[in-house]
Amino acid sequence: MRDTRLAVLQAIREQGQATVASLAAALGISPISVRHHLTGLQAEGLLKVSLDRQAVGRPKHVYSLSQAAERYFPVAYHTFAERLLDELKASLTAEQVAAIIDRMVASIAARYGSLQLSGSLEERLHKLVDILGEEGFRAAVRRVENGALQAELNCPYVFIGQRHPEVCRIDHAIIRSVLGRDVQRMACVLEGDRLCIFSVAES
Predict the structure, then answer these.
(1) Architecture of domain 3-72 in CATH?
(2) Pfam families in the record, alphabetically (predicted)?
(3) Is-contact 8 23, C-beta < 8 A?
(4) Cα 77 to chain center, whole Å?
(5) What is the CATH number of domain 112-201?
(6) pLDDT tens digits for range 109-133
(7) pTM of the predicted model, to two decimals?
(8) What letter would DSSP give residue 181?
(9) Residue 86 CB: number of other CB atoms within 10 A?
């Protein structure tokens, strides 16, 4: 995203609700330029727009951020999760921590396991790519003899996993639950591999 559009988003966030005039004043650019950027941001689904009808004069368009815009602002979820896991491991036994993670993994797997897909293995794997996308994974599938290989092009848990590798079980559990068959991990980013790769048997 262009720097100016990011600046527009930041200004709207600071103001809460903004008009073309207030944004032009805050950013030091012309109202025409502001409208141009607002149109682009609105087309991307990053803005909510309402009309402020005043007693005198024409109504004004008022802009605020949509939930989708939050991805353009810094977050520290992995830092929070790391600290939480650190505290759990400091306060509980290894067995208790493992049991908590087991329940979490089982809950996530059960959520998607209820969606067990029909069709050929290849069709189910391609649908699984979309499901994994909901969990933050970008995945790709390649057909091989007697099955398929699924590669994860990123890992949303890579920072947490460096200190807490238990989280690597989440994607494995999702794949196994949705496909309803055994899945073998062939490569893992946290073990020095370039990608996480799973082998899925034909039957």
Answers:
(1) Orthogonal Bundle (1.10)
(2) HTH_20 (PF12840)
(3) yes
(4) 11
(5) 3.30.980
(6) 888 776 656 677 777 888 888 888 8
(7) 0.61
(8) S
(9) 12
